[in-house]
């Protein structure tokens, strides 16, 4: 067990900047696990999203869980499409799942609305999860606890943002790609400059050139998704801001706002 924890910590150190991924809540299952043993197993519902691979992975994990103990059975509610519509519909109908996947940006809203169980005492008293070094700290507490320091869920993943580039296009344009050495790391201005050089319309013009045709671009210099919170969180983080702190959203700080504005400028200005 200690070896596994060490390797996770080493991975986090090597990965550098990290962002919180999906969070599981409200974790009613832990309430059952802490109860006295019963003759008949208790069934809990577990609702989640995902494609075929994630569906199969969760079912495999449930099988192992049920083989290791006999007190709890899990009914997996797989919703591959329109997940949050289905989850909110169940909540509104008074039939919410006992546990569910909740993305990090929605997690705080669920906590604020009182939809997530306080599981702090259950975690503290659990022989495995209550171990001092079980979670990666302080990151896990920062993303799982509310403003009062009470845990309402457990993070299921850490997601590392990556940027991939086409080495052939860099070579064709005569541009040296970025590297991790100090003199080759791109700052934001350099990133914009290179992205413009790699963006070409049908007439070979670049953004900023006279006559550049934005409606007839043959090659884009960068694709930065703006319809998902995680790439925005990455921009906020690298710009010195934070997405959340003490259970509250902190996107109104100057650093966070500038990071988000940089993404908007990338699309609508540059």
Question: What's the SSE blueprint?
Answer:
Elements: H1 2-15, E1 19-20, E2 23-25, H2 28-33, E3 42-48, H3 52-68, E4 72-78, H4 83-92, E5 99-102, H5 104-112, H6 120-125, H7 139-144, E6 154-155, E7 158-159, H8 167-173, H9 188-198, E8 200-201, E9 217-219, H10 229-238, E10 244-245, E11 248-249, H11 254-268
Parallel strand pairs: 3-4, 3-5
Antiparallel strand pairs: 1-7, 2-5, 2-6, 8-9, 10-11
Named CATH topology of the largest domain: D-Maltodextrin-Binding Protein, domain 2
How would you write the strand order of the largest sheet? 4-3-5-2-6
Number of distinct beta strands: 11
Average the pLDDT over all residues and give the rounded result.
Answer: 84
State the end-to-end distance.
49 Å
- When the domains are counted, the total is 2
Number of helices in the DSSP assignment: 11
**What is the gyration radius calculated from CA atoms?**
23 Å
Give the CATH architecture of the largest domain: 3-Layer(aba) Sandwich
Query: For the record, what is the CATH homologous superfamily label of the largest domain?
Result: Periplasmic binding protein-like II
Shape: elongated
Biggest sheet features: 5 strands, mixed
- Please identify the structural class as seen in this structure: alpha+beta
Order of helices and strands: HEEHEHEHEHHHEEHHEEHEEH
**Helix amount:** 40-55%
Low-pLDDT regions: 1-34
The CATH class assignment of the largest domain is Alpha Beta
> What amount of the residues lies in strands?
5-15%
């Amino acid at each position: 067990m200690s070896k596994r924890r060490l390797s996770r910590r080493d991975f986090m150190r090597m990965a550098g900047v990290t962002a919180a991924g999906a969070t599981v809540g409200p974790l009613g299952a832990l309430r059952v696990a802490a109860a006295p043993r019963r003759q008949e197993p208790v069934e809990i519902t577990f609702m989640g999203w995902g494609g075929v691979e994630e569906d199969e992975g969760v079912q495999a994990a449930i099988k192992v869980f049920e083989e290791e103990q006999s007190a709890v059975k899990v009914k997996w509610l797989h919703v591959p499409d329109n997940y949050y519509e289905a989850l909110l519909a169940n909540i509104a109908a008074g039939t919410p799942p006992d546990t569910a996947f909740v993305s990090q940006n929605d997690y705080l809203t669920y906590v604020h609305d009182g939809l997530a169980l306080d599981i702090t005492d259950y975690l503290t008293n659990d022989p495995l999860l209550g171990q001092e070094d079980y979670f990666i700290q302080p990151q896990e507490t920062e993303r799982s606890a509310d403003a009062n320091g009470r845990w309402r869920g457990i993070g299921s993943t850490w997601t590392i943002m990556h940027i991939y580039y086409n080495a052939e296009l860099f070579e064709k344009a005569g541009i040296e790609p970025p590297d991790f050495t100090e003199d080759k790391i791109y700052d934001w201005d350099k990133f914009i400059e290179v992205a413009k050089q790699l963006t070409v319309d049908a007439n070979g013009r670049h953004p900023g050139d006279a006559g550049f045709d934005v409606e007839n671009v043959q090659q884009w210099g960068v694709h930065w998704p703006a319809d998902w919170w995680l790439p925005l969180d990455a921009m906020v983080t690298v710009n010195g801001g934070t997405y959340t702190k003490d259970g509250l959203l902190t996107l109104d700080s100057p650093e966070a706002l500038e990071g988000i504005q940089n993404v908007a400028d990338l699309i609508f200005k540059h």
